[in-house]
Design goal:
1 helix; about 65% helix; single chain; alpha+beta; about 25% strand
């Protein structure tokens, strides 16, 4: 009887560990996909850029001043 209980507990633990590994693999795939999309988007923006840069600085309260530069970045 104890062997049957031990086998049942082992089977349940094996299922739980398998499900955990599957969830970790799915989350890793999602993370890698998001990272690849971010790199692709960053490259597309960098190559598509026209060489213009705009920088805004807060000068106090609700006031901002924007500066723009032309040139290769």
């Amino acid at each position: 009887m104890a062997w049957l209980a031990a086998g049942l507990v082992g089977a349940v633990l094996a299922l739980v560990i398998t499900a955990t590994v599957v969830v970790i693999a799915a989350m890793s795939s999602l993370l890698l996909g998001l990272a690849a999309a971010a790199v692709k988007t960053r490259r597309a923006i960098h190559t598509r850029g026209s060489g213009h840069l705009i920088e805004a600085r807060r000068v106090g309260g609700h006031s901002w001043v924007a500066y723009g530069w032309d040139g290769d970045l």
